[in-house]
Structures are given as structure tokens and as C-alpha cells.
Design a protein that fits this description.
alpha+beta
Length: 69
């Protein structure tokens, strides 16, 4: 889960360099589980911003093709 969060935050930071809006993330509440499929699937992160407002963002990730560890 930490790897997924790091990847997501890296993508957000890259978007900021491209002039896209950035997320104001003070605390991550949850990140959805990634299914064991070899396909691109939606994932959702729920977070709290620095003003205390709760938000969610849905993005696409590659499923976990390796299956259970």
C-alpha cells in the first residue's frame, strides 16, 4: 500500500510540473485494495486536506498480476 501511495504522489507531483492542479493532501484516510487481475482497474484514495475537508480521488492503476504473495 505504501508503494501505491508513493507512486500516486509521484504522479501528482509530475502533473504539477506539467501545470495541472495538485492535491492538498494532509492525511490519507484509505486507499482501495488492488484486485489480483492483469488489467488496468480503478482505485480510489480518500484523503483529508489541510483545511480538514475530506475528498476522494479515483485513478487508474495496473492490477496485481502476481496474485497473492
Amino acid at each position: 500500500m505504501k508503494t501505491l501511495l508513493s507512486l500516486f504522489l509521484a504522479l501528482v507531483a509530475t502533473g504539477a510540473l506539467a501545470g495541472e492542479p495538485t492535491l492538498d493532501v494532509a492525511k490519507v484516510v484509505s486507499i482501495s485494495d488492488i484486485p489480483n487481475v492483469c488489467d488496468v482497474v480503478p482505485a480510489t484514495m480518500v484523503y483529508i486536506d489541510h483545511q480538514g475537508q475530506t475528498h476522494s480521488v479515483t485513478y487508474m492503476v495496473m492490477g496485481d498480476c502476481g496474485g497473492p504473495a
